[in-house]
Design goal:
Layout (H helix, E strand, L loop, with lengths): L20 H5 L2 E2 L5 E2 L1 E5 L28 H15 L3 E5 L9 H9 L9 E6 L4 H11 L3 E5 L5 H8 L4 H14 L4 E6 L9 H11 L2 E5 L18 H9 L4 E3 L10 E5 L8 E6 L12 E4 L4 E3 L8 E2 L1 H5 L4 H13 L19 H4 L2
Helix pairs in contact: 2-3, 3-4, 4-6
This protein binds S-adenosylmethionine and iron/sulfur cluster.
Amino acid sequence: MHSLTRPPPAPLVPIGHRYSSSMLLGQLADRHGRVARDLRVSLTDRCNLRCSYCMPADGLAWLPVEGTLTDDEVLRLLRVAVERFGVTCIRFTGGEPLLRRGLERIVAGAAGLRGAHGRPELALTTNGLGLDRRIDGLRAAGLDRVNISLDSLDRARYARLSRRDRLDDVLAGIAATDRAGLRPLKINAVVMRDINEADIVPLARFSLERGYELRFIEQMPLGPAGEWRRDALVSADEILAELGATFALTPAVEPRGAAPAALWHVAADAGQPGGRVGVIASVTHPFCGACDRTRLTSDGQVRSCLFSRDETDLRGLLRSGGSDDDLARVWRGAQWGKPRAHGIDAPGFQQPERTMSAIGG
Ligand code: SAM
Ligand code: SF4
């Protein structure tokens, strides 16, 4: 039986560390000793799937177009993040980021940014629909890495879970990304009780055979309000037990740092290549103590935590003539108030009003 119970990773800045004011100015720190270097940017709240753990079947009321940041507004905030805070990784997400017409332009603009740590790494999280037609342009624009969501290899189960019969399109997107040579190519899979547990081993085999890194994600309370049930959760330990019945797993020895996934090495076997597989146990083994993320929604709100119930508006400041100094000061203030932990298991936990698609996963 494999378990994720391991010593928690050390925070990036030791708790209790005394900051100098110049340190605080040059980075996005919070009062619990963490520093954000990983920016998740949602480019749209719209999506062409309706994954049941993320969105209601009828979709949501989309944000009005005029409320969404323009390409230039997004690029200005990215510049502030890289130049002022030393952000080292920008991940474009959504909703479905491929629905954003200006994606290639935004990626190209971001690729030209330089901060204290050089050029930021540029990553994309996508459902893969239409990626086969865009990947070469995105790569040329400067995209470094792609995570593609794939919850099932069974056409009927995929359609049931995402409420759209689009498995072939996702597989085409994965194959095209593979051909384009972007590495590591990561596959994200959310496991839901009685829906796609049977996909755990086939998804692992599919990924290992192709040299992809699979990440199983515990379902979080970020979908349609009132639908998540803690007692129905397929936990990371259950996922590992299922994998361990087929594959020889050993915990990875590489330091995990701020990465959300705990990694496991899979030994090569007769007819089965080895590789790595990860499990993101946000619910049962939270990793908040090492979190290095800050988030920007498509309407220009900073969220210091995925589960924040409050947001800080940068769009109003952008549109009322705020300077880069103003934007940096307000963003820094928002991050300073980042909660110590998401508190999913705390008695008073309340799900955020926005669902995952509107926050940016
Ligand atoms: N549409 C893109 C996609 O599906 O990859 C990007 C946005 S989606 C919100 C980002 C990631 O969040 C996906 O891998 C998705 O599976 C995951 N996700 C969405 N809702 C979730 C939930 N309630 N719990 C855990 N992961 C979730
Ligand atoms: Fe869309 Fe991604 Fe949410 Fe699925 S997980 S509904 S693809 S935003």
